[in-house]
């Protein structure tokens, strides 16, 4: 037994030998760069780890002898990406990481200012409205339009959309501007059924904008109508032959904004009604969970509907007793209210489904930031809209007004808290926008329910325009139309009317055709107030004129975005 034990010697196993010796289970002297055994047998000696390529199903090649795979063999059959495209994709990853999970009131001082699309690059000096300075190291030459073989006209219009139109779709330049990233990306994504109609809709919007910025107005309007018509035809074909999808809504909303930019006073609302019809057809798919483009499009739909309802008189709205008031389209267009402010005897199943879906969207990150507001202040505006409709048949409820006014006061207190933390450029722009929204909502509240005169609202009018003036003097961008308009129509003193005119001059410079009508409505409201004050011999500040009556008398419609 003792002799048998002597046959087994103590051995220390190591795992630092070369790959060949370990595979053959022989002693390796571990000499570098080649061990003696491999030199003697003329074998390739390697000390690196062996990597095994794992297949999609989780399996991998098994072999008694390790195989060396060159880079060419590893990627055989896989197309090699162009280096410019690789740089483009890496740059976009950097941008996505920089803005990940950031809110509106955050300083983006370190955010790079490039974009993965060639058309997005600014070749000339940066405009005064640019918040984020260009990085001189980023000069991406990849052309994402090359596969489409666009004409010179198409390339020019797409470039104008990205550099100008997309920027002014938001009140201030923001790294998460969906019209500068998601919309153009969807317009050149050949995998989407809606690529062509969305591309043409963007070109139409850009051409309508150019028509109001250049001297060749008629030519630009003709070009815009051409692309607008092409988009309509392509969209109709998709609706007839394909399954509905959320991206279809994106096309409809873009066509609606093209109408706004053209200056057509009523056509935009037809698109809005159609958009709600599409939403009700595909909402069961919950597309906003998987698609960021669908999410921002639905956010835009709800915000536009909410703002659109503020420009309509009570008798223009459908409000049947026993149901929540609905818009002319037949769909609830306001935000849900889980606060007990508005009560109704019954609710239709369609209304409940609308409210449930809208609630999901409004709970998404930074809902309302694209218009310069918050979910809380937009909900207050929505409550005012609904109370206007409900009061047609239920009468006044003092408790409802007190509750809503308390929520408005809470928004004002939150704004005051933010004022102590405003620092960066983006913070200031967002703060001025939100401040104007809060002050203008007070005006909308008191005018809607108590018919207060402009003199009684003077404090809120001045407050609104103080925020507007700070925004304009900082050259932050295209101030949101709604709060400034709500204050402008109530202006009566030389001071406030001068503020309103200064804002109007700036607002008209961005090339939105609808603002021509906006200016006329404001000036007509002032004219009627002046006539009434002279006829009855009282101060203009005591004369309340409903601007919604002006647009109804003129048989026009304005979208205040």
From TrEMBL:
Occurrences of domain Zn(2)-C6 fungal-type (ranges): 17-47
Main location: nucleus
Subcellular location: Nucleus
Transmembrane segments: none
Keywords associated with the record: DNA-binding, Nucleus, Transcription, Transcription regulation
GO cellular component: nucleus
Highest taxon above the source species: Eukaryota
MF (Gene Ontology): DNA binding; DNA-binding transcription factor activity, RNA polymerase II-specific; zinc ion binding
Pfam family, one: Fungal_trans_2
UniProt-recorded name of the protein: Zn(2)-C6 fungal-type domain-containing protein
């Amino acid at each position: 037994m003792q002799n048998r034990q002597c046959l087994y010697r103590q051995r220390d196993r190591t795992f630092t030998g070369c790959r060949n010796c370990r595979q053959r289970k022989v002693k390796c002297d571990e000499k570098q760069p080649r061990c003696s055994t491999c030199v003697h047998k003329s074998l390739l000696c390697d000390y690196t780890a062996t990597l095994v390529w794992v297949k999609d199903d989780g399996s991998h090649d098994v072999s008694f002898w390790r195989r060396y795979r060159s880079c060419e063999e590893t990627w055989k059959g896989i197309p090699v990406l162009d280096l410019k495209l690789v740089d483009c994709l890496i740059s976009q990853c950097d941008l996505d990481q920089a803005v990940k999970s950031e809110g509106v009131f955050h300083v983006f001082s370190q955010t790079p200012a490039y974009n993965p699309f060639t058309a997005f690059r600014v070749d000339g000096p940066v405009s005064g409205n640019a918040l984020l300075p260009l990085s001189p190291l980023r000069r991406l030459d990849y052309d994402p339009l090359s596969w489409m073989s666009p004409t010179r006209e198409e390339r020019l219009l797409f470039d104008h959309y990205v550099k100008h139109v997309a920027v002014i779709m938001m009140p201030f330049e923001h790294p998460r501007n969906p019209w500068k990233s998601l919309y153009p990306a969807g317009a050149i994504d050949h995998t989407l059924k809606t690529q062509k109609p969305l591309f043409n809709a963007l070109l139409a919007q850009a051409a309508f904008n150019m028509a109001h910025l250049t001297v060749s107005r008629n030519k630009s309007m003709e070009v815009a109508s051409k692309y607008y018509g092409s988009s309509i035809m392509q969209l109709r074909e998709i609706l007839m032959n394909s399954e509905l999808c959320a991206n279809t809504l994106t096309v409809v909303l873009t066509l609606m904004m093209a109408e706004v930019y053209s200056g057509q006073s009523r056509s935009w609302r037809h698109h809005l009604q159609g958009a709600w019809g599409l939403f009700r057809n595909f909402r069961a798919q919950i597309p906003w969970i998987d698609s960021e483009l669908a999410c921002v499009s639905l956010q835009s739909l709800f915000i536009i509907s909410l703002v659109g309802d503020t420009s309509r008189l009570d008798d223009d709205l459908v409000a049947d007793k026993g149901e929540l008031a609905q818009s002319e389209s037949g769909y609830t267009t306001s935000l849900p209210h889980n606060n007990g402010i508005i009560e109704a005897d019954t609710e239709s199943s369609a209304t409940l489904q609308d409210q449930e879906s809208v609630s999901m969207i409004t709970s998404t990150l930074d809902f309302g930031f694209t218009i310069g507001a918050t979910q809380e202040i937009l909900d207050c505006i929505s409550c005012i809209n609904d109370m206007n409709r409900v009061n047609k048949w239920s009468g006044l409820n003092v408790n409802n007004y007190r509750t809503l006014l308390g929520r408005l006061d809470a928004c004002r207190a939150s704004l005051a808290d933010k004022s102590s933390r405003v620092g960066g450029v983006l913070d200031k722009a967002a703060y001025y926008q939100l401040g104007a929204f809060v002050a203008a909502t007070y005006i909308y509240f008191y005018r809607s329910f108590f018919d207060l005169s402009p003199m009684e609202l003077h404090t809120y009018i001045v407050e609104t325009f103080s925020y507007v003036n700070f925004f304009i003097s900082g050259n932050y961008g295209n101030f949101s139309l709604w709060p400034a308009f709500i204050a402008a129509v109530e202006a009566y003193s030389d001071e406030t009317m001068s503020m309103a005119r200064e804002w109007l001059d700036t607002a008209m410079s961005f090339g939105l055709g609808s603002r021509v009508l906006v200016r006329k409505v404001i000036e007509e409201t002032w004219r009627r107030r002046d006539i009434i004050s002279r006829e009855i011999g009282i101060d203009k500040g005591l004369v309340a004129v409903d601007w919604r009556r002006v647009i109804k008398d003129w048989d026009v419609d304005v979208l205040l975005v």
